[in-house]
Amino acid sequence: MDAVARLVVTHRRWVLLAWLLLAVAGGFAAPKAVAALTYDFSLPGQPGYETNRVIQERFGSGGDALPILLVDRQPSAERAGDLVASVAQALPGASVLSYAGEQALRSSDGQTAVVVVYPRIVPGPEPYVEALPALQSVAAAHQVTVTGKDALAAEGGGDQGADVLVETIFGATGALIVLLLVFGSALALLPLLIAAGSILTTFLLVWGLTGITDISFIVQFLLALIGLGVAIDYALLIVTRWREELGRGADPAEAVHRALATAGRSVFFSGVTVAISLAALIALPVPFLRSVGFTGLLIPVISVLAALTLLPALLLTAGRRLDWPHRRSTDPDSRLWRRVGTAVVRRRWLSAIAATVVLLVLAAPVLTIRLGQPTNASLASAGGDAGDAITRLDSSGIGAGLTTPVDILTADPAGVRAAVAGLPGVASAVVWPGRAGGETLVRAWTTADTSTGEGVEAAAAVRVAAEATGARVGGGPAGEADFVAAVYGNAWWVIGLIVVVTILLLIRALGSIVLPIKALVLNVLSLGAAYGITVWIWQDGHGTELLFDQRAAGAITTWVPIAVFAFLFGLSMDYEVFLLARIREEHDDGHPTDAATVRGLARTGRLVTSAALILFLAFISLAQVPTTEVKILATALALGIIIDATIVRGVLAPALVAALGPANWWTWRRRPGQPLSEPAAASRTK
């Protein structure tokens, strides 16, 4: 850090010029990077995915391209014939199965019937982008309703309207308000400038990555909003420490040296921890998550670079002038957090036990977690004709799983149909018209929605029975099952690698073996609580209508838990590093553990609370994206940050530090200047 400080102090103008050029280039690259993002959710090597590819190549649709359903409330053979003819005219080459030829597509009361359509897919984010408008016109002419997963997503907004710039401006506005309250001066602008430089530079690098590999469309939101929060957090820590050193009489250059030696060091280790946790996604055999890992790795790395170089150069150039009107003390000590710290230390065991119980209660719902896509009912809760039609279909007895059938590729269609049609939970199985490559499609669908527990079990039973006949199985349910196996079957060693590397980093950062292990345990509790509340809200349906104006998803999207772990593991560790590093510093200055704990919490309390609030607002912005999966991700991240900044950092962490006493500082070697023992530290303060 001393070398970095000398470099910035000596060459501040060159540093500013370099970052200006990067930001300008990033501004040019950002729209090009966004345009180059992909919507690829491939799973190379997984049997369900490979089967889906064969199905689409041979039949032009199907597999993980789900059907569009035309729901007829006045079914008749004549209407069915006219409707099929109109669909064939509007969508040449589409695969169609009518209720006139398949009794399973008609309800027992004869009041609801379905025509199933598989249009030919087109490359791009929306495989039916051309087909849906055409089918809407056909449906209007024949007085039927278009529905299905794609139609529901389109009616609910899908990814349309998800403007990354608007969401970022919303998050930045909230951050600016918090920063103005923290600094009471124009210094509040500096963290925003750091965030802008970091985000634009990262977009520049992502644009380069898009020329090498596919990068998912989701990263634009993660990059902008998480980048906003992380960069501001790091800048906030350094600016606060710089003002503190000015208040102690240091000149601006010396204040930069001291701020980087203390806060800058914490920022460096925090950023590396976040980067490592996100880089672990690259090791998973899922291209979509790998792209999130690549971009996630860049976010903290660039934010740290900006905080350690651009920010000091700005402080040296304009820091004094921006600190106007100076309405806040440079002393970071918070009376509120000092009182909290004193109370927690005084009742350390009671505080630790109470906080642990609360976290375990919050985490309890995670034991019932179910991975899958949002249910039909959740998507239908957005309202509209497609939502009404899917609700009617689900209650008709035809089978809610018709929206996500199991596709079976076989040379013995009659045998496969006989093997799966009578299984528990299976509504029907039909031999699909047409044959290609010597094989035929059999499509089976479940009585229950395949995003529910019953539907998942029934779809899995169909797959087992079909594969026992030698058939290959694809469709949406098989793809979901393969995704879970690919991601979570490999997660244990990825998580283990993250844990080992993180502990080694924190041992180096904190000069202790006990503190990193404690931080890791608390992080696990924090993550568990975030998962638990997310399951309670989105899977079990407590508050989704109030908070998001839609029904519960019924399941947690398959990729969300691992993405939440990757982001939240590092982000929530930030606050513990900030707190523990300050406690370590106070202890090394000669204060006993209890006093160091209170002083550390008092001096980081306002800072960490503000930083957490900024990240929370960024995730609230992310939750405005109309895609349910992104809302679930944003919910888990926002809750995790709040839990970590309050219960964990405010109560449990300081309580355990106080309870462990001298054991906190145990290591295999004594750091230079480190007190030999607690009594020695206490005697030096007298």
From TrEMBL:
Gene3D superfamilies hit by this protein: Multidrug efflux transporter AcrB transmembrane domain (1.20.1640.10)
Membrane topology term:
Multi-pass membrane protein
Q: Which UniProt keywords apply?
A: Cell membrane, Membrane, Transmembrane, Transmembrane helix
Limits of the SSD domain: 175-317
Give yes or no: UniProt keyword DNA repair: no
Keyword Protein biosynthesis in annotation: no
Chief place where the protein resides: membrane
Against InterPro entries, the record matches this protein to: MMPL_dom, Mycobact_MmpL, SSD
User: Which sequence ranges are marked TM in the entry?
Assistant: 164-183, 190-209, 215-239, 267-288, 294-318, 349-369, 490-507, 519-538, 558-581, 607-626, 632-661
SUPFAM superfamilies per the UniProt record, alphabetical: Multidrug efflux transporter AcrB transmembrane domain
Location comes to: Cell membrane
Q: What is this protein called?
A: MMPL family transporter
Please tell me the species this chain comes from: Paractinoplanes pyxinae
